Amino acid sequence: MGSSRPLLRSAALLAACLLPAAALGDVVHLTTGSSVRGTVVHEDDAEVVVKTPQGKVTFPRELVERIERESKGRTRLALARERMAEGDYEVAERLLRLARRDSDSRVAREAESVLARLRRRREEERAERAEAERPPPSPAGGAAPTGAAPPRPAGRRLRLGGGEFVRGVRASEVVLALRAGDARKALALLREVRERWKRDPSFAYLVARALRMRRRESEARTIFRSLLEGTGVDFSLPLARLEELARRRLAGVELGAHSPGATSEWRREESEHFAIYHPFERVEAWFTRAPEDALRDDLEALGLARSEARFSGRVQILIYSSAEDYERREGMKLAGGHARVRYAPDGPLKLIATYPNRRVYTDTYRHEIAHTVLLENYPDMPAWAHEGAAMWCEPPQAKGRLRAAVQGQEQGGSLPSLLTMLRGEVPRGDDRRAVRAYYGQCTVSFEALAELTGSPREALELCEEIGRSGPERALAGAGLSLERVERAWKKHAHRRE
Questions:
Q1: Main-chain dihedrals φ then ψ at residue 299, nearest 5 degrees
Q2: Domain spans of the chain?
Q3: For residues 217 and 233, what is the distance between their CA atoms, to the nearest angstrom?
Q4: Residue 44 burial by CB count (10 A; 0-12/13-18/19+): exposed, middle or buried?
């Protein structure tokens, strides 16, 4: 092996170049598990040179696992989605108009679909602006009831595009400053409305986040403690945990002394994108890597770029001690876990709840982490499509029993029609057999659409259109007949794993 000096130089620059970053054309996946996005300008047996926004970076060839190249159209789509998420709609629309003219018909159709979504979002936010700019009533005095979430700020939820206004300051401006690491700018924006809104809990949370970034940890801790009063949370916990608990509460999640992470009895591990709360005294290194591995596998399975997995803070994974504890505290029956998205002052809070079982770190993680990606990227997809796409990400052996359940329904004459399924009119069911059959139908339906459209990504776009305009119109727009989908459906229903 050659000199380690180039490797050290590359490692020193790695932190500045790791994803997420601007959506450029190539993604270089490293053997360390990290990725660098940019443009590959040179490649040979000895090294790979990547041009990034921070400058050129040279990696020894042995450090590079693989290179993922994107077309211009795909790059424009990825960048447009990033701009949409940050509220920069003008740039997003220009990029989508360019992508719509791409020679790849699939890219063009996808760009058209995203452009329609952008226009609807802008219309919604115009309506929200008038409502949200009106001053809300002064918050009532006194502490919030024990375990209850503090009052939400006036106006609607914080939209993915940054459409809610918080105390006269556009939320996206503050959030963008925090994401960019510019705590000084965030504090300046918030200072403008301090006197009027200093009693508002969402305002206090954003101030505390900025103070923590400025290393004013004592002041940040005081604010986070005030936001958690009456919950039973142990205030001596590390500051990172208090921030995540305050974010959870402001997103409307009830907290109590027995909530995951609320006391020192709960442990916390973190990776690049995940914070894992668990009751185990000791864990091995793979435990922390498992959700990152599942995220990588999900994106690859669905054909999505790494930049399309957007994160506003870490996804919080709550692992209960047993299935009984999970069902009692989360209220979910006949489930190995579930994912949800709530809206915090600084963006979507993604939560996953589960419990130890033999499939949690493979099947359950892949399924629920897929939901956290899909809920943000395809908000109009019907529930069956979300479940079908999440099942697509699970290992093949997890789907055999689901197909058997569908076949049993078919033989017993109780199988709902495909059109009923696509319309979202099939319930999940309240016993194990019905739940298994429902997930089987979701799985087979998504597999059929992925085959007919040519890829899971195209199937996701079609499912999004089904959620917006109904199955008949969406299928016709994609050049598919219901009969053709039914034939593909039956083939996948009887497929052997």
A1: -60, -40
A2: 5-69, 73-133, 165-246, 266-377, 378-497
A3: 18
A4: exposed
Contact in structure between 98 and 324 (CB atoms under 8 Å): no
Confidence check: pLDDT of 333 > 80: no
For residue 137, the SS3 value is coil
Cα(87)–Cα(159) distance, integer angstroms = 10
Exposure string over 381-411, b if 16+ CB within 10 A, otherwise e? bbebbbbbbbbbbbeeebbeebbebbeebee
**Residue 63: which of 130, 8, 118 has the closest Cα?**
8
Nearest Cα neighbor of 383 from 375, 392, 394, 395 is 375
How large a percentage of the chain has pLDDT more than 70? Answer: 82
Report the CATH superfamily, name and number, of domain 266-377.
Collagenase ColT, N-terminal domain (3.40.30.160)
Compute φ and ψ for 155, nearest 5 degrees: 95, 180
CA nearest to 16, candidates 50, 45, 54: 54
What does the alpha-carbon distance between residue 38 and residue 51 come to, in Å, rounded to a whole number?
Answer: 5
Please calculate the CA angle 448-111-98 and round it to the nearest 5 degrees. 150
**Which backbone phi and psi does 91 adopt, to 5 degrees?**
-65, -40
**CATH class of the domain at 5-69:** mainly beta
User: Quick check: 254 and 329 in contact, CB under 8 A?
Assistant: no
Q: Which pLDDT belongs to residue 239? A: 95
- For residue range 57-78, what is the model confidence (pLDDT) as tens digits? 888 888 888 887 767 787 788 7
State yes or no: cis peptide before 153, omega within 30 of 0. Answer: no
Alpha helices in 413-470 (DSSP H): 418-422, 432-453, 456-469
Interatomic CA distance for residues 93 and 109, integer angstroms = 15
Alpha carbon 154 to chain centroid distance?
25
Whether residue 123 has pLDDT greater than 60:
yes
- Mean predicted confidence (pLDDT) in 390-408: 88
Tokens of 186: 């965030």
Matching CATH topology for 5-69 and 165-246?
no
Query: Length of the chain, please?
Result: 497
**Helix 72-85 to helix 105-133 angle, to the nearest 10 degrees?**
10
Q: What is the CA radius of gyration of the chain?
A: 24
Pairing of β 35-43 and β 267-270? unpaired
For tokens 């794993």, the residue is 497
Closest to 461 measured CA to CA, from 106, 119, 120: 106
Indicate the fold that domain 165-246 takes in CATH.
1.25.40
Neighbours of 51 (CB within 10 A): 16
| Sign of the alpha-carbon torsion through 83, 183, 131, 144 | positive
Asked if 154 contacts 132 with a C-beta cutoff of 8 angstroms, the reply is yes
Decide: 243 and 212 in contact? Cβ < 8 Å: yes
Residue type (1 letter), 328: R
Residue 126 has pLDDT above 90, yes or no: no
